[in-house]
Request: fold
Amino acid sequence: MTSYLDKFRLNNKVACVVGGLGLIGTEITKAISDAGAKTLILDIDEEKGNKLAEKITNDGHCAEFVQFDATDLEKISVNIKKIYKDYSSIDIFVNCSYPKTEGWGNSSFNEITLDSFRKNIDLHMNSYIWSAREAAESMSRQDNGGSIILLGSIYGLLGQDLTVYEGTNMEENMSYAAIKGGIINLVRQMASYYGKYNIRVNTICPGGIFNNQDPIFVKNYSKKTPLKQMGKPDEIASVALFLASEASSYITGSTLVVDGGWSAI
Reply:
């Protein structure tokens, strides 16, 4: 008899979480390690990373910090190959990093510079694409395939609703829309190509996640969702766990929208 709960177990799996110290990444790291995977926290802050790994280990699970700069595209290939060699497998690869330039906040159509646009495309979209490609190439050498999960956004699927920024100093972001749209379609293409290796590639598209934003923005945003609230990081982590596990074994090339119904109306 099938044990459906066991389908969510990740025992004997090696999982990489790029941006594993971020707002969403920390919860994904916890969720995947809680399910039994040896979870590698790929990020840049060694002190913070070792503390999180120690906490997870003290809770009876398995996590290690691996210093990894997702924005150093020239070293992505060698760094992922080293991880594969050191751990003999990459079964799960999640990218929830959020690299951006200091001028990220000035990315409105009427003020963005070409230099800023180019740099953010390279830092964010291109780092996602190249690291996912390298992870997939490593997975293709395994008999058991793997699962790749990239973080998109509802604003990679929809235009940004400018009304939610009214009364705040926030504004739309040209770079963000282009980056997340590119990631989403890259996932579809990867799913098409790497399916023959039993590698599944999917996107999670969160809606707005609460992070102590301007209270006016939070109110504006929340009232537009059927659930009348912003999302929480753990609500994204639960979906990542599902996509990482055999519970989603027939899902690839999909875009799972986790937005409280924002995109439904």
Notes: The mean pLDDT is 96.
